[in-house]
């Protein structure tokens, strides 16, 4: 159901051409926000997300850019301001994995995951923040992971990036709290976006489900719902927090 919870608000969602980011973008648009859909490579997929939003009566644009590149992050934010004259919400969702056990992990595997997942969030936040501070309002939501809390074999680089994002969230939250800006992190568990979970064998699925007290995988709507809540007026006194969305797995 569409609401006006985020009417007049402008949001930038990174990595929103598919998966969780696309659903977050659709959700924020449904709540009345104008949404910039950032993508790195898949323009057609990003355009499809925009079409879906526009067809549903919302407003959205696509913005290309690699969040790990400073120039791209700066241009991304500039483009949102040129388009709508303001920015209120940043969702740092863009993320990648390059899974390997530590002994096989290359320096490139390590660097690239940290660059996209952590440096990318830093750069986008850095360039968005002056606009939020000027208007003394804003919301930043960082998509971390339960792996950043509990660790996971084969994901030392990813876990480090997601744990780093939590430290980043808590620090920036303290820096900007007096300006009426909130900064929070979400830590999803196993979210079925039609990719990784679909490719698991039935046995692997069973093993994973056995570790989830709610006995089901999460879906992108579970994450989008929490983003929408954190961006709304009702969450104005919540900052520096990490909310796990994992069916009770990590607790
Ligand atoms: N799916 C899960 O189970 C799960 C669990 C916990 C956390 N997460 C996190 O949620 C976020 C979204 O995950 P997803 O499963 O939808 O992944 P996905 O691979 O489906 O989507 C990731 C998006 O990020 C974009 N992206 C990648 N590198 C980029 C870059 N350098 N610049 C800009 N965009 C870039 C991709 O193009 C894509 O649109 C990620 O940060 C991921 O770590 C996912």
- Estimated share of beta-strand residues: 15-25%
* CATH fold topology: Rossmann fold
Instruction: List ligands, each type once.
Output: nicotinamide-adenine-dinucleotide
Q: Write down the Rg.
A: 17 Å
What portion of residues is helical?
40-55%
* Major sheet characteristics: 7 strands, parallel
Widest β-sheet, arrangement of strands: 3-2-1-4-5-6-9
- The number of distinct β-strands equals 9
Q: Describe the global form.
A: globular
Which class in CATH terms?
Alpha Beta
Class by helix and strand content? alpha/beta
Residue windows where pLDDT falls under 50 for at least 5 positions: none
In quaternary terms, these chains amount to single chain
Number of helices: 9
Kindly describe this structure.
It catalyses: a (3R)-hydroxyacyl-[ACP] + NADP(+) = a 3-oxoacyl-[ACP] + NADPH + H(+). With 251 residues, the protein is α/β, with parallel strands linked by helices. The protein has a single domain (10-244), classed as Rossmann fold. It is 47% helix and 17% strand. It has 9 helices and 9 strands. The protein has a 7-stranded parallel β-sheet with strand order 3-2-1-4-5-6-9, sandwiched between helices. It has a two-stranded parallel sheet with strand order 7-8. Strand 2, helix 2 and strand 3 form a beta-alpha-beta unit. Helix 1 (19-30) packs parallel to helix 2 (43-55), helix 1 crosses helix 9 (220-231) and helix 3 (70-84) runs parallel beside helix 4. The two termini are 30 Å apart. The model has no long low-confidence stretch (mean pLDDT 96). The chain binds nicotinamide-adenine-dinucleotide (NAD).
């Amino acid at each position: 159901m569409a609401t006006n919870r985020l009417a007049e608000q402008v949001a930038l969602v990174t990595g929103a051409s598919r998966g969780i980011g696309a659903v977050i973008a659709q959700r924020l648009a449904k709540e009345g926000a104008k949404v910039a859909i950032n993508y790195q490579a898949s323009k057609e997929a990003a355009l499809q997300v925009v079409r879906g939003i526009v067809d549903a009566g919302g407003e959205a644009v696509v913005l290309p850019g690699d969040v790990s590149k400073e120039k791209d992050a700066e241009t991304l934010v500039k483009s949102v301001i040129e388009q709508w004259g303001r920015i209120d919400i940043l969702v740092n969702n863009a993320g990648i994995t390059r899974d390997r056990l530590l002994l096989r992990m290359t320096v490139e595997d390590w660097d690239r995951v940290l660059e996209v997942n952590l440096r990318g969030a830093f750069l986008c936040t850095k360039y968005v923040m002056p606009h939020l501070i000027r208007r003394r309002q804003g919301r930043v939501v960082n998509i971390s992971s339960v792996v950043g809390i509990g660790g996971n074999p084969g994901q030392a680089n990813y876990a480090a990036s997601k744990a780093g994002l939590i430290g980043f969230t808590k620090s920036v939250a303290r820096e900007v709290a007096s300006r009426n800006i909130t900064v929070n992190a979400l830590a999803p568990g196993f979210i079925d976006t039609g990719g990784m979970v679909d490719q698991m064998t039935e046995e692997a699925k069973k093993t994973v489900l056995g570790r989830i007290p709610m006995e089901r995988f999460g879906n992108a709507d579970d994450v989008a719902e929490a983003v929408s809540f954190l961006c709304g007026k009702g969450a104005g006194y919540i900052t520096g927090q990490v909310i796990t969305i994992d069916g009770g797995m990590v607790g």
